[in-house]
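pinging the channel bc i need a second pair of eyes. not urgent but kinda urgent?? the chain im working w is below, pasted from the shared doc
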Amino acid sequence: MSSQITPNSVNETFPVAGRDNNSQGFRDNFTAIKNNFTYTKREIDDLMNKAVVKSQLTYGPAIDNNFAGQVITGATFRKESYAIADNAEASTVTIDYANASQHQVHIGVDTATANTTLSFTGLPAANKYAEIRLFVEVGGTATGPWTLTFDSSLNIRGTGVAGFDATAKTVTFNTASTPASPYYIFVLGTSDNGAEFYLREETCSGINNGTEDLATATAASLTLTGSYFSTAAAETATLAAGVEGQVKTFAMKADGGDMVITVANAGWKSSGAGTITFDTFGEGCTLQYMGEKWFCIGNNGAAFT
């Protein structure tokens, strides 16, 4: 689109000095000048209302660098930053993408709220990809486990996320009373206006090399590599499904009775759960989650059934 301003419409050689000039020439020049001023004002107003500016114009409208869905190509970015919305701790939190693409969520930090349900709004129309990054802080006032639940209307697909239950649409943090890490980063992507989200974790699935003292009738932590136990009598525990490549170790520190751990997706069973029994001080084993099953990759005396 070219400018409508036409400088050549003004006759700069008129009027001619020392001559009786025709008044029509004056009128023609005044008309051309007026038209060009009109075009100039219209085009400057259009720029003020639509152009991207670095700072507030002295005589322009308030800055609104909203691209309104326009396509940008061939751009190079450096030192960019993102607005982040800090959502107050609550049992239900609505993540507004129109407000920010980065959101903080708190569970059991300021209050004893141990569970939070998320819903989403402000997403772009279908066939446009949106990505939301969640910074989740857990623990502090309440003790675990902590649960992040996605609204029941959402279809969530999780990849490599420890503690994620696709059926229940939940992420459970730290079954021990103290979290391995109080901070987690999740990314949710959607290209169909939120009809389906793809969930991934950017905090190494929350897994670290810490250990826990596994109590009876509890679930072994999926965020700590090692679980040891000192039994006072016959005890039981459980191990839920892990994430691909995750390693988990168990060891009997003191023997006051057998420890039987029920393992979901046991690799030594054709399907379903299996058990590991420890009945002697010093017994231990190492498991690795591969192909959606826990396989034993090292064993010192434990019995698998």
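so Residues 23-50 form the longest helix (28 residues). and Helices lie at 23-50. — does that match what u expected or am i reading it wrong
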